Every structure is written in structure tokens, then in C-alpha cells.
From TrEMBL:
This is Lipoprotein.
Length: 113
């Protein structure tokens, strides 16, 4: 039961992140968000990450609940994926913003190229 809930939470998060971003296309959009959404290798990597998260029984959902949080996380993740931000800086920023999610941050960082 707990695993099914976690899986649905991660799927919901992934859908939330990208559906919000796609729906905002008609509204002013940060070009960095557009770049992340349109980056096919990043999108493929992100989907693999979500699959790995779903399989990890320890991983807890990071509370990214608003459009602003979603956009900020996506841009930071994309910048880190593209080596514009170091993994250390990514870790520091996420651990500062979400202090009870060090495991989750390390999980993501370990899978960044």
C-alpha cells in the first residue's frame, strides 16, 4: 500500500511538473523553463530518474507543490544536468530549501551526468 502511494505520488509529481509548464505556454514563461521542457535528452533522463525514484523504498517526495517551486526546481535541475551548476551547488540549494530531504537530494545527484 505504501509503495503504491509512493509510486502514484512520484507519477503525480512528474505530471505536475511538466503539465504545469506546458499549460503555461500561453502565458509569460521563463525561457529557462521552456529550454528545460524542450530538452529531449534531459526529459528522457528525468523520466528515468522518476522510474528509479518509484523503485526506491526509502525515497520521500520532496514537497514541490507550487508552480513557482516547480519552475525553480526544474531550472536548477536542468542547469545541473547541463553542467551550468555544480552538483555541490545543487545539493546545497536543495538541502537549504528542503532541509529534511538530504537522502533524496543525494539520490538525484548520484544520477546526474
Amino acid at each position: 500500500m505504501k509503495r503504491a502511494y509512493k509510486r502514484h505520488s512520484m507519477i503525480a509529481l512528474a505530471i505536475f511538473l511538466f503539465s504545469i509548464l506546458m499549460l503555461q505556454g500561453c502565458v509569460y514563461q521563463d525561457p529557462r523553463v521552456d529550454a528545460a521542457v524542450e530538452d529531449k535528452p534531459f526529459y528522457s533522463w528525468f523520466n528515468k530518474l522518476v522510474s528509479q525514484i518509484e523503485k526506491d523504498p526509502i525515497y520521500k517526495r520532496i514537497p514541490i507543490d507550487t508552480t513557482t517551486q516547480s519552475n525553480e526546481f526544474l531550472v536548477l535541475l536542468h542547469d545541473t544536468y547541463r553542467h551550468r551548476v555544480t552538483k555541490e551547488e545543487f545539493s546545497q540549494r536543495i538541502n537549504t530549501q528542503y532541509p529534511d530531504h538530504q537522502y533524496e537530494t543525494a539520490f538525484i545527484v548520484a544520477r546526474l551526468p
